[in-house]
Amino acid sequence: MIEVRDLHKAFGKVKAVDGVGFSAADGQITGLLGPNGAGKTTSLRMLYTLMKPDRGQVLVDGIDANVDPAGVRRRLGVLPDSRGLYKRLTSRENIRYFGQLHGMDDALIAQRTEALSRALEMGDIIDRRTEGFSQGQRVKTAIARALVHDPRNVILDEPTNGLDVMATRAMRRFLLQLRAEGRCVLFSSHIMQEVAALCDRIVIIARGQVVAEGTPDELRAQTGESNLEDAFVKAIGTEEGLMA
Ligand SMILES: Nc1ncnc2c1ncn2[C@@H]1O[C@H](COP(=O)(O)OP(=O)(O)OP(=O)(O)O)[C@@H](O)[C@H]1O
């Protein structure tokens, strides 16, 4: 369970995040949808404790990120916007290294790696050095690495960025599996079809603020639009930056 209250972050004169608040429940996929520059990445960075908010509160499973950031990090698996891998290491070694950072023992790491490799269909890449990996192969490795410690809450920043249709479909299946396991899944996207296809709840963010929030049906009702795409455009006030 992730709760964000009244988050603020400015870079000089740019108010990147200007009072964002929302919650993401367990066993649901929550989508943070907004055009380029809306403040999605900045909100997520504060959420996973990479960046300190100017103001506001982040709670993960009731733990306050200001009070116990390490406790929050333990409960989160994060696919950040930059997927930097150690390119001299194989995929498996990248995953193992993260497991070791979390203090896991070798047997548990091996067991989790096996399960994630199967779920993400990584059999052909798991023992290859990541140098030269395709975008899809890099994302799979970065996700497996992020989930090695079996976190209840999973945050993914634009997880399908740069993926082809098949890889995108595989990613969707994987996110649905995380939901079926009862996890709290929160991801950001500027592609409304992506969010519409997957999310139980959608938080629409524009100019650093939440402009609408709810299930797809609630958003249609709030905006008076029967088509979800029109509802998004109406909530945001412009089509700019929202297309793939
Ligand atoms: N480190 C930074 N320094 C200065 N400005 C920043 C920084 N990070 C973000 N910004 C600015 O804050 C605003 C929000 O950016 P952010 O990356 O959070 O948007 P986003 O919704 O994730 O967009 P995108 O879909 O393009 O990734 C933008 O105007 C951006 O230029």
From TrEMBL:
Q: Which InterPro entries match?
A: AAA+_ATPase, ABC_transporter-like_ATP-bd, ABC_transporter_ATP-binding, P-loop_NTPase
- Pfam families named in the record: ABC_tran
Q: Which PROSITE patterns match?
A: ABC_TRANSPORTER_2
Q: Name one GO molecular function term.
A: ATP hydrolysis activity
- Show the taxonomic lineage: Bacteria, Pseudomonadati, Pseudomonadota, Gammaproteobacteria, Lysobacterales
Which branch of life, at top level? Bacteria
Report keywords, A-Z.
Answer: ATP-binding, Nodulation, Nucleotide-binding, Transport
| Keyword Metal-binding among record annotations | no
In its keyword annotation, does this UniProt entry include Flavoprotein?
Answer: no
Q: Mind telling me which SUPFAM superfamilies this protein's record contains?
A: P-loop containing nucleoside triphosphate hydrolases
UniProt family annotation: Belongs to the ABC transporter superfamily.
**From which source organism is this entry?**
Arenimonas metalli CF5-1
Taking every annotated instance into account, which residue ranges of this chain make up the domain ABC transporter? 2-232
Provide the protein name.
ABC transporter ATP-binding protein
